[in-house]
């Protein structure tokens, strides 16, 4: 069993514990949903990740509509649709998620700056798998620019 597969039930347990203490729209719950969804994506389960990201996005829309995490979630939701080959549904989410992150780049903590290149990588993947080479090449250039600017700090 892969590490991400092992993490999924742990995040589900954490969500259950949070539901006893937090309201359903608490931003801490959204953070846990994001982590769960990312594990599901990395475990190769994009269809399972989709409803998790939709729930997370609903929380952000209600509680933190202008926070960078909302746009990261939007991009991750697009990534879950991309993983299901729902390219036309994924594209607007991926584009809006990237643009929202880019506009809020200065407000993203240094450790999380990696979220912007991750969002750009999803756009490259979208256009590559969708057969739109010119758009994929444009996003590769953008990806190289944001990667250079988003090096995470060294861990202590």
Instruction: Describe the sheet with the most strands.
Output: none
- The class by helix and strand makeup works out as mainly alpha
Strand content: under 5%
Helix content: over 70%
CATH superfamily: Tetratricopeptide repeat domain
- Summed up, the helix count is 7
DSSP strand tally: 0
CATH topology name, in short, is Serine Threonine Protein Phosphatase 5, Tetratricopeptide repeat
CATH architecture: Alpha Horseshoe
CATH class: Mainly Alpha
Distance between the termini: 30 Å
Topology as H/E string? HHHHHHH
Give the overall shape.
Answer: globular
pLDDT < 50 runs, ≥5 residues = none
Number of domains: 1
Chain-averaged pLDDT: 93
What Rg do the Cα atoms give? 16 Å
How do you describe this structure in short?
This protein is mostly helical and 156 residues long.
Overview of the structural elements:
The chain has 156 residues and is mainly alpha-helical. The chain has one domain (3-149): Serine Threonine Protein Phosphatase 5, Tetratricopeptide repeat (Alpha Horseshoe), CATH 1.25.40.10. Helices cover 76% and strands 0% of the residues. It contains 7 helices and no strands. Helix 4 runs antiparallel to helix 5 and helix 4 (68-83) packs parallel to helix 6. The chain is globular and about 50 Å long.
What layout of secondary structure does this protein have?
Blueprint: H1 3-21, H2 27-42, H3 46-63, H4 68-83, H5 87-103, H6 115-129, H7 133-149
Helix pairs in contact: 1-2, 2-3, 2-4, 3-4, 4-5, 4-6, 5-6, 6-7
